[in-house]
Fold this sequence. Notes:
Layout (H helix, E strand, L loop, with lengths): L2 H23 L3 E5 L10 H9 L3 E5 L6 H13 L5 E6 L2 H8 L5 E7 L10 H7 L7 E3 L5 E4 L1 H7 L6 H10 L3 E2 H5 L11 E7 L7 H11 L2 E5 L5 H4 L1 H14 L3
Parallel strand pairs: 1-2, 1-3, 3-4, 4-8, 8-9
Antiparallel strand pairs: 5-6, 6-7
Helix pairs in contact: 2-11, 3-4, 6-7
Amino acid sequence: xxxxxxxxxxxxxxxxxxxxxxxxxxxxxxxxxxxxxxxxxxxxxxxxxxxxxxxxxxxxxxxxxxxxxxxxxxxxxxxxxxxxxxxxxxxxxxxxxxxxxxxxxxxxxxxxxxxxxxxxxxxxxxxxxxxxxxxxxxxxxxxxxxxxxxxxxxxxxxxxxxxxxxxxxxxxxxxxxxxxxxxxxxxxxxxxxxxxxxxxxxxxxxxxxxxxxxxxxxxxxxxxxxxxxxxxxxxxxxxxxxxxxxxxxxxx
Length: 252
């Protein structure tokens, strides 16, 4: 091979590698979807950690009035992003990102102590098959919405969070419609996009065994954290680390 040809091929190869690296590094948008019985405010520490690393973080305040309403709310935030995004979902938020993650701006999915349904499954389907330890979900008087008994909130949702914080969360929890919990998803985004899953091994809201099984079925990269269901509050640095890994690897 003559020298000019060799140099041309070498430069082309280097350019290709540089382009691949740039593509991976370009994922700087993080969109977070909270779960039921909570809202986005609990994600402040994770948000600030990610922003210090140069990420742009957007949070979806999904109403949990129906799965479609929550998917629509997530799509509105995704539409506002200026490039590929990592979509993060906690708990019921995992159901939302499974559906909403088919959006073209989504490059990867991060499930945080979350449900990962497949086509035709709903949150109720999964809970019925493998219930979590908590038995303290209550229905509102009109029997259309659900909430976690405030007296059990600290124990079952946020056992490793300071008591004053979990008490306030119990008061400010977002009620979840039964319709949202019972609606099955369509084609799951995790079939076509890379995914990561955080298993909260001390979870009392979702069975940790169910989290493991769903993550394995989806082919997600799994990280186990000894935490309550509120792992994003009690272990924000570890949660942020998984999100950073997803952002670095999703485009490769």
